[in-house]
Every structure is written in structure tokens, then in C-alpha cells.
Write a structure and sequence with these properties.
- Helices cover 71% and strands 0% of the residues.
- It is mainly alpha-helical.
- It folds into two domains: 384 residues, Amino acid/polyamine transporter I (Up-down Bundle); 64 residues.
- Helix 6 packs across helix 11, helix 10 packs antiparallel against helix 11 and helix 13 crosses helix 15.
- The protein is globular, with a radius of gyration of 22 Å.
Length: 487
């Protein structure tokens, strides 16, 4: 008898292939290309086209794993649920935690990106608008409105396609691509790492797999179709953008490449249209990331890692409103920083680590659960998942240092949360000690980023001294709690 490893969900399967593709494209056609392409071009120069192609290739290798796992285990929780079936315990929890962080920072990037693009039309306070847009779409998500998602992604696709078509119609621009690799291979790989998060959105489909009709067929189709579309479209966009951007501007990481290239190709109307497309893309990214956040949190709550009340659904709208609201509180906190590059790196680190673990999950399940029903089997096995693991881990070397430090702190916090849940509250003091030290590390990092100007916060000297004193107190409290003997 075939092995059954997960419980049937109570969720009604009501999503057909078309809307499954819309969910995938909502995640794939995101804000990232509009706000991250600038710095990626700065890192790689004209060779950014190769960086995007490499990112897209790694993405598709892992998407094959997502297709098989999503078709075989179409349940709430996505990545986390797959790891639970394969490994259980701390590995499963860690994958769910990383997926949650990736979605949280992805949604944060969308909110900040929307506010940044809005400045093309009117001057605004970016952090304030970012927080406001999170609040607005929290209310929309609680109501469960989904029809607008298809409209926004189709509008964004239409505008981006027009940009590429008009750009290619202007012909090849050979001078713009010389020299092709001004910073060599390190620049190409650094841009690959930074731009990786542009391509990961199609995996949002697995978060909705529990509601998709015939998931064995429709989940793989939606993921692969949207992934191929986005790789082709983004590489062409990068090609057109570099071709119509003045050479000197390629050295400015804050230069709005897409907007300026569109203005050259299609005039002022083109610049406005690209900006509008970016704002639509920000909306799709935000709503999709919030949906994924909710799915992951409900999966972790279902298995007892998070409180059960997070599973509660709204009596009228049928949405997991409590999970959505709590997730949005974290979005508000991070969106208030308004820092795009740092948020992009953190999201990329979490995504790369999660992709490596998902590929490992596929290998584990193929080996230990051969009788698991697989409506779709990933081709090129085991070479595709192994290559996906190697390339994902290798790219972590190029993640910006402060983002890597923050992610390691998040991982430590995840381990504390997990073992606190597993060992019970008799070890609470030890756990609190670890949390204290984790908070000290986080606040120290934030103060450092403020000092070097990466986080735009003006901290008066008296406040700074008070914060340093508080950090010292927390450090002492953490050490004392860790040294406490546990009965």
C-alpha cells in the first residue's frame, strides 16, 4: 500500500489552472526587478544579463523539485510540510522558519518598493507610505479579495512586454555592452546572488496547493510556465535596459535604470508606464507574500510550534485573519526602515538557503519514500537537485555581510524557539538568556547600520548612550540566565 504521510486538509479545492497560473505569476512578476535591477547592474555591468540567466537557471532547477513535491504533497505549509514529511523535527521547522522570513522580507521589499516608485510622481515619505500600504493590504487580505490579483499581474505583464518589444525594435546597441564584464566573474556572481530573489516568486503556488483543483497536474504546470516566462522576460528587460542606459549612469547604484531606459525608448509616457507597472508588481508581490506567510504560519501552528489560535478563520470571509494580522505587524516593523538593498539581501539569503534545503528534501523523499504517489516526477534527477544545492550554497558567499549576520541571528532565534517548544517551560530561563543575547546582537547590528548610514535614523547622543546601557544590561541578563542550573 502506498505510504500516506500527511493529513487531508479541510480546505476546499476551488482554484483551477488559470488562477493557479495567476498565483504563480503574482509571485513571479514582482517588485524585485524594478527596485533591485539598479544595484545588480552596478555590480555586474552589462554582464547583468548573464547574472539574471544564471539566477533563473538555478531557480528552474529547484522549481522542478517544487513541482514534484507540490504535486505529491499539496497541503497547507508548502516547503515546511515537505520537510516535515522527509525529516520532521528541527530541519522541518527551520525550513518553515526560513520560508516565513523570506516571505516577510519579500513583502517588506514590495511595500518599500511601492513607496519608492510613487516618488516618481509625487514626493513622499517612503517609510510612512510603506507602512500605510501594508495596513491597506492587510485589510484586503483579511477580506480575501482575489479578483484584483489577476488584473494587476496582467497589466504589469502587458507593460513590461511592450517595453521589451519597443526596445528590441530599436535594434542592438553594441557600444553599450563594452566592456561586457567590467568587474569580472566576482561581479557577475555578486549580481546573481543579489538578483536571485527576482525569480523565486513562482513557488508561491505551493502555498495555495491545498486549494488547487487537480494539484498533480496544475501545480507543476503553473510553476514551470510562470518560471519560464519570467526568466525570458527579465533577461530581455535587462538587455534592453543596459542597451539604452548612458554608460556613465551604469556606475550609479541608485540610478533608476528601467525608468530612464523606458523614457529613452517610449518617451515620458514610457517612464510613467514602467513606474505604474512597478507599482502593480509591488501590489502582486505584497499580496502573494502575505498569502505565503499565512500558509507557513498555519502549517507551523497546525503542528504545535506556534499557538493554535493562528489557525482561526474569519467567520464571514473564511480567511486566516489572525495569522494575517500578526504577520503584518512584522511587515510594518521592517517596512518602517525604508532600506531596499539590505532587505533585498536578507530575502535572497533566506531564499537561497531554503532552496538548498528543498532540494535535499526531494532527494530524501525519493530515497526513503519510494511508494509516495508522485503525479509529477522531476526530470534530470538526481543531477538537477544536487546542482541546485551546490549553486545555492556557493552564492551565499556573495551575500552582503550585515545581511548574513542578521540571517544567522534569525537562525539562532529559530533554534531557540524550537527547543523551547520541545523541552517545555522548565528551561525558560535558559531560553530567555539566549533570546536576550540574540536581541543584543540584533540591536548592535542595527546601531552599526545606523552609524555607517545604511539605516537612515538620526539617534541623539543621550538616546545612543541609553541604548548602549540597555544592551549591556541585556547581555548580563542573558549570560546569567544561560549559566543558571536547570533542574
Amino acid at each position: 500500500m502506498a505510504e500516506t504521510t500527511v493529513r487531508k486538509q479541510e480546505t476546499k479545492r476551488e482554484i483551477g489552472l488559470f488562477y493557479a497560473i495567476m498565483i504563480a505569476l503574482n509571485g513571479a512578476v514582482g517588485i524585485e526587478v524594478f527596485v533591485l535591477l539598479n544595484y545588480a547592474v552596478f555590480l555586474a555591468g552589462p554582464a547583468v544579463v548573464l547574472s539574471l540567466l544564471l539566477s533563473g537557471t538555478i531557480n528552474i532547477l529547484t522549481m522542478l523539485s517544487f513541482c514534484e513535491l507540490g504535486a505529491a504533497i499539496p497541503e497547507v505549509g508548502g516547503d515546511y510540510t515537505y520537510a516535515k514529511v522527509a525529516y520532521g523535527g528541527v530541519i522541518a521547522f527551520l525550513i518553515g522558519w526560513l520560508r516565513w522570513i523570506s516571505s516577510t522580507f519579500g513583502a517588506t521589499l514590495a511595500a518599500i518598493g511601492f513607496a519608492a516608485l510613487l516618488t516618481y510622481f509625487i514626493p513622499v515619505n517612503i517609510p510612512l507610505i510603506a507602512v500605510a500600504i501594508v495596513i491597506v493590504f492587510t485589510l484586503i487580505s483579511v477580506r480575501g479579495i482575489k479578483e484584483a490579483d489577476a488584473a494587476t499581474v496582467l497589466i504589469a505583464l502587458a507593460i513590461l512586454t511592450a517595453f521589451v518589444v519597443f526596445g528590441l525594435g530599436h535594434g542592438f546597441q553594441p557600444r553599450a555592452f563594452q566592456p561586457f564584464t567590467p568587474k569580472g566573474l566576482p561581479g557577475i556572481f555578486a549580481a546573481t546572488t543579489y538578483s536571485f530573489v527576482m525569480f523565486i516568486g513562482a513557488r508561491a503556488t505551493v502555498a495555495a496547493a491545498s486549494r488547487i483543483k487537480e494539484p498533480g497536474k496544475n501545480v507543476p504546470r503553473a510553476i514551470l510556465f510562470s518560471s519560464l516566462v519570467i526568466v525570458i522576460l527579465y533577461c530581455l528587460m535587462a538587455y534592453v535596459t543596459v542597451g539604452f542606459t548612458p554608460k556613465g549612469d551604469l556606475l550609479n547604484p541608485d540610478f533608476p535604470f528601467l525608468t530612464q531606459a523606458a523614457k529613452v525608448i517610449m518617451g515620458d509616457v514610457g517612464g510613467a508606464l514602467i513606474t505604474i507597472a512597478g507599482m502593480f508588481a509591488a501590489i502582486t508581490s505584497l499580496t502573494t507574500s502575505m498569502m505565503v506567510q499565512s500558509s507557513i504560519v498555519r502549517g507551523l501552528s497546525r503542528d504545535g510550534y506556534f499557538p493554535k489560535f493562528l489557525l482561526t478563520r474569519h467567520k464571514r470571509f473564511g480567511t486566516p485573519h489572525i495569522a494575517i494580522i500578526i504577520n503584518s505587524a512584522f511587515l510594518v516593523l521592517f517596512a518602517a526602515t525604508g532600506v531596499i538593498q539590505f532587505v533585498g539581501y536578507v530575502a535572497g539569503f533566506a531564499a537561497l538557503t531554503g532552496f538548498a534545503l528543498v532540494n535535499l528534501t526531494l532527494i530524501k523523499l525519493r530515497k526513503e519514500k519510494p511508494l509516495l504517489k508522485r503525479p509529477f516526477k522531476a526530470p534530470l534527477y538526481p543531477f538537477a537537485p544536487i546542482l541546485g544545492i551546490i549553486m545555492s550554497i556557493a552564492l551565499l558567499v556573495f551575500v552582503e555581510a550585515s545581511a548574513s549576520i542578521l540571517m544567522f541571528e534569525f537562525i539562532v532565534l529559530a533554534l531557540i524557539v524550537y527547543y523551547l517548544r520541545m523541552t517545555g517551560f522548565h528551561r525558560l530561563r535558559v531560553a530567555v538568556g539566549g533570546i536576550n543575547l540574540g536581541l543584543v546582537g540584533f540591536m548592535a547590528l542595527l546601531l552599526y547600520l545606523t552609524e555607517i548610514g545604511l539605516v537612515p535614523l538620526a539617534i541623539p547622543s543621550p538616546v545612543l548612550y541609553a541604548l548602549i546601557f540597555i544592551l549591556l544590561v541585556y547581555t548580563l541578563a542573558g549570560i546569567l540566565n544561560l549559566l543558571t542550573k536547570v533542574r
